[in-house]
Amino acid sequence: MPNMSKTKVPVREQEPLVRATNFDEVCYGYNEEEAVEEATRCLNCKNARCIEGCPVSINIPGFIKKVTERDFEGAYQVISESSALPAVCGRVCPQETQCEGKCIRGLKAEPVSIGKLERFVADRAKADGIKPEGAKVKNGHKIAVIGSGPAGLTCAGDLAKLGYDVTIYEALHKAGGVLTYGIPEFRLPKDAVVAEEVKNVEGLGVKIITDVIVGRTITVDELIEQEGYEAIFIGSGAGLPMFMGIPGENANGVFSANEYLTRNNLMKAFRDDYDTPIYHAKKAVVVGGGNVAMDAARTALRLGAEVHLVYRRSEAELPARAEEVHHAKEEGVQFDILTNPVEILMDENENVTGIRCIRMQLGEPDQSGRRRPVEIPGSEFEMECDCVIMSLGTSPNPLISSTTPGLEINRRKCLVATEDEGKTTKEGVYAGGDAVTGAATVILAMGAGRAGARGIDNYIKSKEANA
Amino acid sequence: MYKIIKKEQLSSVVWLMEVEAPLVARHCEPGQFIIVKHGDEGERIPLTICDYDREKGTITIVFQPVGVATNKFLDLNEGDAFDDFVGPLGRPSDIIEMSEEELAGKKFLFVAGGVGVAPVYPQVKWLHEHGIGADVIIGARTKDLLFFEEQMREVAGNLYVTTDDGSYMHKGVVTTVIDELMAEGKEYNHCVAIGPMIMMKFVCLTTQKYNIPTIVSMNPIMVDGTGMCGACRLSVGDEISFACVDGAEFDCFKFNWAEAMKRSQLYKTEEGRAMLKYQEGDTHHGGCGNCGGEN
Fold it and tell me: pTM of the entire structure?
């Protein structure tokens, strides 16, 4: 008989006002008893809608069943069949719009806490020293993967499991992509989680070479012609930050969320023993409403600032995960919704002194289906601040597309690639993740990495068949 | 790991290192830069490529230690290695893209100030290898700070050396040399100026008088060097450019100098504090504003 409790087993977290002053992980996750109890809430549906909601189609009822049986290694192997990064996904996936959003229990009560269970299984496996299983036999085919973020790691992991000889090229000095430079420590611990997941992928036989910027240090054509790779997967992400184009945006104290977070996460500027500086604001205004905006706001808060988040639509349209918005509010981030910046104010030394905003109201639905924000005439006002963090999204870096003949991009500068296999317009070259879709989520990038691995496997096999 | 095969002190404040980085050496061109980092705690430091040897697979960098990270580089000796050395970054210099006819039609003047001698050198050398002798002005505050004079003389057409205090060769700043050369009747139609921002600004004001198109090379604050952080953004005309991907060289007549100078000052206080802490080591007891010590 399943546990018919209407609510999720609550998860333990650091007290909001305590955690707002440190960079330790917010959520402690379930312990064994909590996990088993929550697992018994799963109805083990035959036609499991949660699996449809998962971009990498994890057998969710399958792994949860194993948790109820306390077979945690079995649960981990079920997840590993579909996901290379369960400790990451359990922490950063937007479950409310994916697996948990489809959970049948969610119709009348709270859905099963699938994300927290996934995290528990992954953390438990790590504690018990359990690793994903690699290929028994190598097939000798060399594949290069560009970028060690979620798309690249997933693609490389999948191909290695199939027996391919895979090398990942990473532009930065550390692997992990957005998991390392973008998502903060308090949401995704770097040493305990990201580095471990990267090690697991290396454990499958994948080589990772850092400090190589494909398009500058070496080109895609050279990887194929000189280094002997038979196929390439491009998972280089969407790295270029967007700005609003309003007056004052180059003032001192205005940052892209990318810069602010990279300094803090990759370069660990929040720690005294690291050399990279970061701007310690007294009052910071973060512009935007996505997960990155929440990360930037909560980081600024932890660095000692009073933080306002300015978003031009209403709260219902905030694109961030519900949990991030909830956590940000609990910690004391102040939300100024239906507000849009029009100018950044500065002193004679070009240091930020404030921001001029205008109030908005919602009009007719726009192309995205969301109601278009419209300015309310005469509603301009000024807010004092000494820091503005622009979190307006990113676009793909042209370094690879501009140096690879035959690789087409669309008008948004994203690589053109098929959805089912990640096939680009250049033979043997596959792509996925933000480089193809523009800024999206970790899990969608992983889904695309998986599709790319499938495409590459099919390509190599068909080449062999025709040889 | 990127092995240091040569370390040399060039002047009282400037150091040279030749580093093994075969992939960078295979692809780099004059005008490009690298980012070097050492130690887990180290900062990513952008440095312009001063020379390269494709066969040996080495890159030569020249730097003046100012902050903590660059001072720590001095702890490394020949045979040691940098943890990270990535590049080449930025666009190659315009001269690389020019056709032979275009090059033949150019009368080049290079103006190098301070450590700016290092990034000017590979461009002048490249022109020399293509049969063109460019005129070069090297400016230093005083004789002790001068370096690379002989190397530059070997590849330059005419070399003019000037010191602000007159301790060596000509006395005066680089712009006075430009004025004198123009008064002598010299003709130039392409100037490249690299050095401290204030020097580049005044070179531009001077060359503008003579209608000489002038290129400057910027080294603003940056983090990743691949276009990701936007810290290096600069106003060029009505456009926002990222020095790391759109530069580092820019047409100086459209440049917003006041903004660029102020942007480069952003972390001055933090850097000063960190440097104080580093220099004083265990004896550090205040003054940095961070540790609660007195003063």
Answer: 0.91
